[in-house]
């Protein structure tokens, strides 16, 4: 494994083969993909800590989905990546959709977990309130945010049967820089849906039946706009898909890539 910093963004690179660019969600890091790494052994994994998150918290300036996407595109250029598979979770799926819609030559495929095009209008005030809490309360606020997310975005089954997963989600959020997390919340709260109807690359969409961020009916509606895409719903699973159902994610990733690209 090598780790580079490109314009302040931490980028982990492992393996050889076609590149898969991995973009985590709000409160995540490159570690969101560690549980499914065995399924990606035949690829070159390029795992980002997104601007404002984890080791990339120091990336300055206001954040938006568009400028995060542009930073990823520019970093791909710096790494000599002209075409790649994109793997995303939550906020990272919005970035993936933007890249595929605006740079179709760059995106060879999309595999998206907890996917959404943008937050529903009803959710935006709560995301902005979360940003304010992180910005104004710092570490204390981040602990309260982490506890609330574990209670609402991790399935009851996972909390009961896989307490280590619940602890991992809590730790991932609590370890975020509060100001960076607030800026990421701002980017998510202001996100606008990209024009996905022209996306022609293969797309895998995965969610949980208890995912309130990317509920199954919303994910199926996205799939209906992408001919040839495949949507999968895991039972008793919340929003942190790769942590909650790692084995199922690996199975579907292996099937997605081996069926088309190997």
TrEMBL record:
Domain AB hydrolase-1: from-to ranges: 19-245
GO function terms (MF aspect): hydrolase activity
GO cellular component: membrane
Keyword presence, rRNA-binding: no
InterPro entries: AB_hydrolase_1, AB_hydrolase_fold, AB_hydrolase_sf
Keywords, comma-separated and alphabetical: Hydrolase
Gene3D superfamilies: alpha/beta hydrolase (3.40.50.1820)
Protein name: Alpha/beta fold hydrolase
Species annotation: Parapusillimonas granuli
């Amino acid at each position: 494994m090598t780790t580079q910093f490109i314009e302040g963004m931490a980028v982990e690179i492992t393996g050889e083969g076609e590149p898969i660019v991995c973009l985590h969600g709000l409160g995540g890091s490159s570690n969101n993909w560690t549980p499914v790494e065995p399924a990606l052994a035949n690829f070159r994994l390029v795992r980002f800590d997104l601007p404002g998150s984890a080791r990339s918290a120091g990336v300055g300036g206001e954040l938006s989905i568009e400028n995060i996407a542009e930073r990823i595109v520019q970093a791909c250029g710096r790494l000599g990546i002209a075409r790649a598979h994109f793997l995303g979770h939550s906020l990272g799926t919005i970035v993936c959709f933007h890249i595929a819609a605006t740079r179709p030559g760059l995106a060879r495929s999309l595999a998206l977990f907890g996917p959404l095009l943008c937050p529903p209008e009803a959710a935006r005030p709560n995301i902005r309130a979360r940003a304010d809490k992180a910005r104004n309360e710092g570490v204390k606020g981040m602990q309260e945010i982490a506890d609330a997310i574990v209670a609402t975005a991790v399935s009851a089954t996972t909390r009961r049967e896989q307490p280590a997963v619940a602890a991992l989600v809590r730790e991932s959020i609590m370890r975020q820089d509060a100001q960076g997390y607030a800026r990421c919340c701002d980017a998510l709260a202001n996100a606008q849906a990209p024009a996905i109807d022209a996306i022609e690359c293969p797309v895998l969409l995965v969610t949980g039946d208890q995912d309130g961020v990317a509920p199954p009916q919303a994910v199926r509606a996205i799939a209906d706009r992408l001919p040839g895409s495949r949507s999968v719903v895991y039972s008793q699973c919340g929003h942190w898909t790769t942590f909650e159902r790692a084995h199922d994610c690996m199975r579907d990733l292996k099937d997605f890539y081996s069926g088309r690209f190997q």
